[in-house]
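A note on notation is needed here, since sequence and fold are reported together in a single record. The reader may check this reading against the record printed directly beneath this paragraph.
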Amino acid sequence: SLAVLLGIFFTSLFFSLVMYFWRTRNWLKNSRSSTIDILVFGLLIILQIVIVKIGIFISGALNRALPFISMEACYFAIPFAMGSMIMAILINRNVALITSVMTSFLIGFLFDEKLVLPIYSFLGAVAASHHIVNSRNRSTYLKIGIFLGIINMTAIFCLNLVSGNFLNDLFWRLLMGFIGGILTGVLVAGITPIFESLFGFMTEIKLLELANLNQPIFQKMIIEAPGTYHHSIIVASLVEAASEAIGADSVLAKVSAYYHDIGKLKKPQYFIENQPSNENKHDKLSPKMSSLIIIS
C-alpha cells in the first residue's frame, strides 16, 4: 500500500541522514568528489534492491520448476553482497560498511521483516567487502566470490542452528549459498568497470592497467623519445620505493611517474635526454622561444 511505501521511504531517508552525519560525511571528505561518491552510493543501493527483487522472482520460478528446492533455499543464492563489494572497490571499506547496513536494513522489508536474510546479507557483505579492497587483478573477483560462498555457507550453518531446525533444507541452502557467492563475484567483475568508466573512478586494477608498458603511448615513447622513456622508468622505480617506505599509495605514485613526462612527445628532440649528439637545438634559439617550446 501507499502507506507502507511511504513508511519505507521515510525510514530509509532518516536512516541515511543519520549515517551520513554520523560518520560517512567524514569518510567522503578525502575522496575525489564527494558529490559523485554520494550519487554512486545511492545508485548502488537502488541497483542492489533491484537485483534482490529479480532474485526473488527467479527463486519463485525455480521453485515452481523444481518443487523439491524450496523457495527459501533459493533466496540464499541472491547476490546480497554485490553493492557493498563494488563500493569497497570504488571508494573504501568504510563506506562499504554503511552500504552493507543500509542494504541489509532494506532487504528486511522485502522478506516480510524476517531477520534471517538481513543478517545473512550483512555478514556476507561485510566479510567480502573487507576482503576485496586493493584487489590487483580482475580474476581476484572470482576468488573473492568463492571466499564469499564459504562465508555464506558458514552463516547458513549458524543460522540453521539458531532457528532450532538445523537440518531444514540444509543441503540446498548450503549449495545455494555457495552459488550465491560465485554469482556475486561474477556480477562485481562485470559491473565494476561500468562504474569506473561512467564516473571516472581510479581503482587499483585500473591503475595497474595504465601501468602496462605495452600500451601504445609507451611504445610510441620508446621509439620517438627513448631518453624520456628510460627516465620515466627510473623515476617510477624510485617513487615506488619511496612510497612503500613511507606507507603511501605506491601503485598510484608509480603510474603517475610513468606518465609525468608524456607531454615531451610533442617535441622530444628539444629535451636533452633525447638528443643523441652534443648538439642542443636550444643553442640557436632565443630564451623566450625555448621557453615557449618547452611550455607547449
Notes: The chain has a mean pLDDT of 82. The longest helix spans residues 34-65. The CA atoms of residues 223 and 296 lie 21 Å apart. The radius of gyration is 26 Å.
